[in-house]
Amino acid sequence: MIPLSVLDLAFITEGGSAADALNRSADLARHAESLGFRRFWLAEHHAMPGIASAATAVVIGYVAGATKTIRVGAGGIMLPNHAPLAVAEAFGTLESLYPGRIDLGLGRAPGSDQATMRALRRDPTSAERFPQDVVELLHYFEKPQPGQGVFAVPGAGLTVPVWLLGSSLFSAHLAAIMGLPFAFASHFAPDLMEEAVALYRKHFEPSERLQKPYAMLSINAVIGETDAEAQQAATSLQQHFIALRQGRPTTFPAPRSVSWSSQEQRLLDNTLRYTFAGTAGSVAQDILAFVERHRPDELLIGTPLFSQAERRKTLSGIAHYLMGVEITADHNPQF
């Protein structure tokens, strides 16, 4: 089986707090580590009442400090929101504290709405400078040259893997020509996934950082004792997603019976088509079929469930069926 990793959005659940969400993230990372998952990534989102990872580098430090071996990283940092030097310093600091365990994924989306962009002092045209900003950021991780006036401390000379993230063709092509690993957000934007990966692999140019293309795809997994239980648990993600698309973001809702309009149902069926919900065995088969068809080099798995116990169970089920892990009481008492 290809390497499996975890994507966590640090959901603030209905009735919960940001502190609860961050503690849940650390707990899930420890669980993923015990099961043998390769990475645990967190994402930058701003002014969203249901997501606690806005200060992504800070959260990565917290999660890395709560674990011992699993790689922890950003999936991703929205580079147009930040000065490349500041990002290099932040991730140079993380790499200095947790050597060999830090990943830096970069995106060019705002991770917010227009009003929040202004509050972040972001230039609306900054996304247009994304390729130049990536080049500048990579430069700060190189060893300083004689006479170089600006360099990152910590950061300069450190090996921090840099990924480009995307949900369109732009970052796929940029990752290819820059010789960087590429991750596609197929868990919520699947339409261009196949075309983006094909473009990336076709145009890849080897670099000092990466000799051959490496593409990671993302999915969601929701595991229950029965298919019906899993489908009910998946309504949390559906509610959260529809609310976000309708411009009324909320905390992550508890599962409940919901009735969608035909338009809303079409949106869910299309956009969340790579959310696999069912028993552990059926979800494992769905994941195997996805991997067989799309041939990613690695899979990034989100567990968008309201219950922490069910998130842990979902990772346990995947690890058992796809990674051959024997689940014990220490891994998950409720498995």
Automatic annotation (TrEMBL):
<comment type="similarity">
    <text>To bacterial alkanal monooxygenase alpha and beta chains.</text>
</comment>
<dbReference type="InterPro" id="IPR019949">
    <property type="entry name" value="CmoO-like"/>
</dbReference>
<feature type="domain" description="Luciferase-like">
    <location>
        <begin position="6"/>
        <end position="291"/>
    </location>
</feature>
<dbReference type="Pfam" id="PF00296">
    <property type="entry name" value="Bac_luciferase"/>
</dbReference>
<dbReference type="GO" id="GO:0016705">
    <property type="term" value="F:oxidoreductase activity, acting on paired donors, with incorporation or reduction of molecular oxygen"/>
</dbReference>
<dbReference type="InterPro" id="IPR011251">
    <property type="entry name" value="Luciferase-like_dom"/>
</dbReference>
<dbReference type="InterPro" id="IPR050766">
    <property type="entry name" value="Bact_Lucif_Oxidored"/>
</dbReference>
<dbReference type="InterPro" id="IPR036661">
    <property type="entry name" value="Luciferase-like_sf"/>
</dbReference>
<dbReference type="GO" id="GO:0005829">
    <property type="term" value="C:cytosol"/>
</dbReference>
<protein>
    <recommendedName>
        <fullName>Luciferase-like monooxygenase</fullName>
    </recommendedName>
</protein>
